[in-house]
Structure formats: structure tokens, C-alpha cells
Amino acid sequence: MRDRRVVRATYYLESQIEPARAAAILAGEQSSGTFVAVPGESAELHERHGAQVVDVQHRDRRRPSLPSRTSPEKVHAALAVIEWPMENIGADLATLQTTIAGNLFELQELFACRVLDVQLPAEFVAAHPGPAFGIAGTRRLIGDVDGVMIGTIVKPNVGLAPEQFRSVVRELARASIDVIKDDELMTDPGYLPLEQRVAIATQEIRAAEQVTGHPTMYAFNITGDLAGLRRRHDLVVEAGGRCVMLNVPVMGLPALAWLREFAAVPIHGHRAGLAASMRSPALGMSYRVWQQLARLAGADHLHASGLGSKFYESDDEVAANVRSLLEPLGATATPVPTLSSGQNVTTPGPTYAAVRSTDLLMLAGGGVAAHPDGPAAGVRSLREAWAAAVAGVPLAEAARSRAGAGEPALLHAVQKFGGA
User: Fold this and answer.
1) What predicted TM-score, i.e. pTM, was given to this entire model?
2) What is the pLDDT of residues 294-321, one digit of tens each?
3) How far apart are CA 215 and CA 141, in angstroms?
């Protein structure tokens, strides 16, 4: 009997042959089909385990997006929906990814192949714990702060000597910032090893809390060899650290899921390397698909790029990324959508207008560190810009109002970054 619990994936395909036939080839390649008949390949086996093409919608004919063994002038573009019985996959994330986004990208019949969406059986979702902390747990660790959480990245991202690093962390922690994180390139270098970085940062954060009363979370990058992952996590936790960071596309979903099994603090999921499988609209998978897998694997925070960013995604795409993270996924906790890249006081207004939520972490590098009056003023200006956005007050008006009340941080940020 065929398993009625199904994984359903939607693809964008391009093919020289009819789209329905191309979709059938994909379904066969990713389930029980072979290109020649083999012993044991029965009708009963196909009925129970073969992937099924549920729908094919022809779009148009266009120039092929990707190279293959042939070079046609025009190919068919189509959307195809394909289902697999959960029995084929079980509840394993690596098997799921191999099934919906594995060998199919190599099929010579396809001149484009991209996973646009995936719908998972409730039993599959329930088999994974998801984020241990998510939005609520992260807020709790930083003093139940209201509104958007404000964070930054240590810059310069590589090359700082220990005392230079200490100075940067001290200044940021005393600015009452919510989150500081390592850059994705900063792992365990000889000039500033993770153990030393953890000791310095936790010491400075504890000292700053005695002054400000505000707990700051530092996301220490523990990306590296898999055998040492638990040791690096334990090093952070034993020193009193409140967060660890993993470059998820580099380490892989199984590494993230394993870290989730023993993590005692939130996992900050960086997406370094993701664009290699996401940037082309003709290949790889959409952010909507990837974030579901990363959430199930246990990421508490997930990078979604940022509106007005220096990266390739449009503001509409970034807003869709954020909204996808805020959508329910079974009973799992909601991760913190993390905005980064070029964030400053000009971006809260359009961000709030697009996503209508303050359950976000905004990582602003220059938006904090490059404020004319220093990092503390940078943090204040971002909080004030978000308050104005939520209240529907134009940024320039809010800046003038705050300056008139003797608080010029927002006005100076507007003069620095624009938005007047």
C-alpha cells in the first residue's frame, strides 16, 4: 500500500522535450525509475515508491538558462509539482534534501531546475525539534528587550589582535547593544583563537552589564572541523557565552541538527555560501525551501539578507524571506529573522512597511560603529528609527523631533546615512 503521507515539491523546469515528459524523467530519477529496465522493477514497486507528477503548467518558450549536452534555440518553461511517499524518505533531513534537490540538477533533459517550494507531512515536521530558543528564548537571554533586537558584527572582521578585539567588544557592550556576532570568516585563527576570543568577550560583556544593566548576547562562530564542534560549543557555554554561530550551508544540515542535539544556547544560523545554490532563478532552491530545512535542523536565528542591502536580492525578495521565517512550521518555535548587510537608520521604515513585525534582529555594522557620535549613539538611533517606523512617523520628522528634545543621535545618523 502506498504511503499517503507525501512530500510535495514545486519546481521551475526548462526542457527541450514536452514539460510533462521532463517532469516524469525527474520523478523517475529521484525515486524508483531507471533508464533501462532492471530485474525487480515491478509495477507494484513503482506504485508504492515511484514519485508522482501531480501537475505541470506550461509557461512559454524561451532561451535555455543553463548549458547541457545540446544547445537548442528555445526550450519549454514550466512549473511542475511532484510528490514522494514519506516511506521513501523517512524523517531524515539529509535524505529529504537528496530526494528533492539531489541528482535532478544534473539531468541533461533539464535546462533549468529549481525547487520553489516544499510541503512536508505533519509527521515529518513533528520528528524534528526545531529551534530550542527561537524568538522568545532569544529575547529572554537579552533581558526581554522590546521591539526589534539590535546587533552588530565585529569589524574589522579578521586580523584584530587580542587587545584591539577587547576594545571593540567593550565599546559595543557598553552601548547596551543586544547582540554582537563574529563575522562568518572569523573561526579559530592563530592570532585570535576562539578560546581567547571567548574569554575576552565574556569578560567585557559581564563588566559592561555591571554598568548598563543590559545583558548582551555574543554569537561566537564555532564553524570548523566536525569532530571539534562539540568541544567548541562547550568552550563557549562553560565561559558563560549566550550564543554560538554556525555557517549552515558550509557545515551542512546534518551538522546543524547534531549541534541542536546538545546545544545549551541559541544557534545563530549564518547563510554563508547559500547563494551558490540560490542566486540563479534557474537552479538550486528558493530561500523559502531552505529555511524550512534549516528551521527543522534547529537554527534559532537565520539570516535573511536585508532591505536596501549590498547583496543581490531585491527588497521584495528579502521581505518574502522574512515572512517565510515568521510563518508557522508545525509546532516548532519561530526562529529570529536576521537582517544584515548595509543596515542603518534608513532601513527600519521600509522593512516594517514590508513585513509588519518587530520580531527581528537587525545587524548593523557601519550603522552602529560609523555613527558620528559613537556606537552608543548608533544603537540609540536605530532603536529610535524603529520606534518611528512602527508609529508611522517619517524618519526625518522623528529625527527633528528627537533633536528638538535634546537627543540628536537619530538626526546625526540621518545626516550620515541619508533619509532627511
Assistant:
1) 0.95
2) 999 999 999 999 999 989 999 999 999 9
3) 7
